[in-house]
Amino acid sequence: MAIDTTSPPAAQTPPRAERLAPRARLVLLILCAAQFMVALDFSILNVALPVLGEDLGFGQSDLQWAVTAFALPSGGFLLLFGRIADLYGRRRLFLTGLGLFTAASVLAALAWDPASFLTGRALQGLGAAVVVPTGMSLLTTTFPEGPQRDRALGVSGTLLSLGFTVGMVLGGVLTDTAGWRSTMGLLAVAGAGVLLAAPGLLAESRHPQRPRVDVPGAVTVTGGLLALIYALSTAAQRGFGGADVLLTLVAGVVLLGAFVVVESRAAEPLVSLRMLRRPTVAWGNAGGLTTFAMMSAVIFLLTLYLQEVLGLSAFWTGLVFGVQGVVAVFSGMIAPRLVARIGARSTLLLGLSTQALFTAPLFLLGTAAWGAWAATAGVTLACAGHLWAIVAYGSIATSGLPDGEQGLATGLVTSSQQVGITVGIPLLSALATSRGDALRETGTDAVAATLDGIRLGLGVDAVVVAAVAVLIGVGLRRRGGAARG
Predict the structure, then answer these.
(1) Rounded CA gap, 164 and 184, in Å?
(2) What is the dihedral of CA 412, 417, 420, 421, to 10 degrees?
(3) How far apart are CA 174 and CA 168, in angstroms?
(4) ∠ at Cα 465 (435, 273), nearest 5°?
C-alpha cells in the first residue's frame, strides 16, 4: 500500500508533529475496528450466560463451553494463520476471516440449541484466529517502525483492552434490554461493516518467496495450544483434579515441547527459533503475555467481588469498568509519547510496575461499602500501566525485523495477547475458587470464603506482574538502546 510516510527524523521532530495521512488513518480505523470487535467477543457473553443457558437448554456445568468454544480456536490457530498470511496474502486472509466471523455471529445469534450455538462460537473463534494476526501484520507493514508505528500500536492496544471492558458493560445492558441474542447480533453487524469497508482500503502483501508451510510445526503448536487452553479453561470450572484436565495439560506441555524440537530441525520453520532468541522478541512477548493475562484476571476477579461480595448490580459494576475504559483511552494516547521520550524498554517496565503497584492494594479489599471506590481506583490506575505496557511490548517485539517476517512477529505478538486473555482468567479463577471451596468446607461463611479466594488471586496477580517486570528489566538490560521500538 502506498502511504505517505515521509517525515523528518524522530530526533528532530516532536512526536506531536508526526501525523498520519488521511488514507493511513482510515486503514488504522479499519484494522483497529476488527481488533476491537474480537476483543468485544471475549467478554460480551460473560453476564449473559445464565439467561443464555436457560434459553437454549445448557446444563449449569456446560455453560463454560459458551466461552471455551470461542477461546480454543481463537488461541490455538493464531500462529498458523499468521504464517499462512505471510505466504499467501494478508489482505486475502484478513477478509476471509472477517467473512467467517460475521457469518458465525449470525449463526450464534439464531442458534436453536446448544450444538448450533457452540458451532457458531467455535467458528467465531476460528475467524478471530485469522483476523487478529493478519490485522496486526497489516498494521505493522503499513506503518513504518518509529513514531507512526508506535502511535498505531497505541491506538490498537487501547481499543483491544477497551473492547474487553466494554464487552462486559454492553453484555449486561443488551441482555437486560434486548436479550442475549442481541450480543451476537451486534458482532454480526460490526463484522459486516468492517467487511464492507476493508476491501477498498487494504492492499495485498505477502512474503516475496512464499516458502512452504511447516506442517509438523503447525500440528504440534496448534495441538499444544488447544490442549493447554482446554485444560486451563476446564480447571477454572472443575479444578485441576479431573482426569481430562490432567491429561490435556500434560498433552499440551508435551506437544509444545515437541514443537520446539521440530522447529529446531525444520528447514523453513513456522516459528524461527533464531527470532525467539532475540531478546526483544522473547522478553517483549513475555511482557505482553503477562500484562494481558494478569489484567484480564483482575477485571474478572473484581467483577466477582463487586457482585458476589458487595452485592452491586450489573449496571453499577459496569460503571466501575466504564471509568477504567475512559482512562484506558487517555493512557493509550499517552503511551506512544512515553515510548518516544524514554524508550520502549523503560515504558514497558514503567507500565508493568504501575500495573503491579496498583493491583497489590486490592488484596486488602473487604466487605465495607468503600471497597467499591477502592476497586474503582485500583483497577483504573492499574489499567493505565497496562496500556503503557501494551504499546511498549508490541513496539519492542516487532522492531528490527524485515517486512517478510512481520506476519510471524505479529503472530507471536497477537498470540501473547489472545493466549494471555484466555489463560489468565482460568488460572487465577481456579486459584480463587479452590481457596474459597476449601474455606467453605471448614464452615466459613460463603461471602467471606469468596472474598478470601478473590484476595488471594489479586495478591498472586500483583506478585507475578512485579516478578516479570524485574526479569524483563534484567533480560533487556544489554538491549536498552535497541529496545526503543
Answers:
(1) 15
(2) -150
(3) 10
(4) 115
What is the per-residue DSSP string for 264-309?
A: HH-SS-SS-HHHHTSHHHHHHHHHHHHHHHHHHHHHHHHHHIIIII
With a pLDDT cut of 90, the percent of the chain lying above it is 18
Q: pLDDT of 114-155, one tens digit each?
A: 889 999 999 999 999 888 888 877 887 777 766 777 677 667
pLDDT surpassing 60 at residue 60: no
CA distance 309 to 447: 6
Task: Read off the pTM.
Answer: 0.74
CB contact set of 442 (below 8 Å; sequence gap of 6+): none
Helix 147-178 vs helix 22-43: crossing angle, to nearest 10: 40
Distances, alpha carbon 73 to alpha carbons 126, 221, 295, 387, 401, in Å: 5, 12, 22, 26, 28
Nearest to 400 by CA among 242, 280, 295: 280
Q: Is the CB of residue 415 less than 8 Å from the CB of residue 357?
A: no
Q: What confidence tens digit (pLDDT) does each residue in 284-337 have? A: 889 999 998 898 888 878 877 887 888 877 667 767 777 777 777 778 778 878
For residue 92, give the C-alpha cell.
Answer: 486475502
Per residue in 87-106, pLDDT (tens digit) is: 777 888 899 999 999 999 99
* Grid cell at residue 184: 451476537
Cell numbers for 18? 508526526
Query: Judging by beta carbons within 10 Å of its beta carbon (0-12, 13-18, 19+), is residue 229 exposed, middle or buried?
Result: buried
Single-letter amino acid, residue 166: V
Q: Where are the alpha helices (DSSP H) in 143-206?
A: 147-178, 181-197
Residue 342, C-alpha cell as written in the block: 524514554
Range 238-242 average pLDDT:
71
Give, rounded to a whole angstrom, the gap between the first and last alpha carbons of the chain. Answer: 22
Rg (CA), the chain: 21
> Rounded CA gap, 383 and 253, in Å?
31
**pLDDT of the residue at 15:** 43
Identify the CA nearest to 288 among candidates 126, 409, 403, 404: 409
